């Protein structure tokens, strides 16, 4: 089973753990991505401590995978996806958290990674690049 870095309840760093998770399955309009790099930004600790955006609905399901943006390689595409295929290098904002071996990207928030751009640089593009830290995942 693939691994992901999660928080298991609201709180501080003591709620974080590396766990095994089910491999996500892409739904309509989604990409399954093998994560190469995940971005790190302040929203991660805010979500972990229970911060809710005004648009959030419902309660978070635990364990919750950290990480909002990533870059990686498409493993599979969901129904109705055009313009992306297995093997494409991509970046974008994730639906299921980026601190994982696999994550789901909605096609509407995904883009092809330019060939000359490093995965680490691409992972910073979905948000503000200034002040970002990235975690590179071994291929």
Run of helices and strands:
EEEHEEEEEHE
Rounded to an integer in angstroms, the radius of gyration calculated over CA atoms is: 14 Å
Largest sheet: 6 strands, antiparallel
Tell me the number of strands: 9
What proportion of the residues form beta strands (DSSP E)? Answer: 35-45%
Number of helices: 2
Overall 3D form: globular
Termini Cα gap: 16 Å
Average residue pLDDT: 89
- Look at the helices and sheets and give the structural class: mainly beta
Low-pLDDT residue spans: 128-133
How would you describe this structure to a colleague?
The structure is a single chain. The protein has 139 residues and is mainly beta. 9% of the residues lie in helices and 35% in strands. The protein contains two helices and nine strands. Strands 3, 5, 6, 7, 8 and 9 form a six-stranded antiparallel beta sheet that branches. It has a three-stranded antiparallel beta sheet with strand order 2-1-4, with no helix packed on it. A hairpin with an 8-residue loop joins strand 1 (3-7) and strand 2. The two termini are 16 Å apart. Mean pLDDT is 89; it is low at 128-133.
């Amino acid at each position: 089973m693939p691994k992901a870095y999660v928080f298991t309840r609201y709180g501080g760093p003591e709620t974080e753990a590396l766990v095994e998770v089910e491999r996500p399955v892409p739904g309509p309009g989604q990409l399954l991505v093998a994560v190469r790099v995940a971005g790190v930004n302040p929203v991660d600790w805010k979500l972990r401590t229970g911060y809710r955006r005004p648009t959030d609905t419902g309660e978070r399901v635990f364990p919750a995978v950290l990480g909002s943006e990533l870059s990686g390689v498409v493993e599979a595409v969901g129904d109705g996806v055009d313009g992306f295929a297995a093997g494409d290098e991509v970046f974008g904002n994730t639906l299921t958290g980026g601190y994982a071996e696999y994550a789901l990207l909605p096609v509407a928030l995904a883009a092809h990674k330019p060939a000359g751009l490093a995965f680490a640089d691409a992972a910073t593009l979905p948000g503000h690049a200034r002040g970002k830290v990235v975690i590179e995942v071994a291929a």
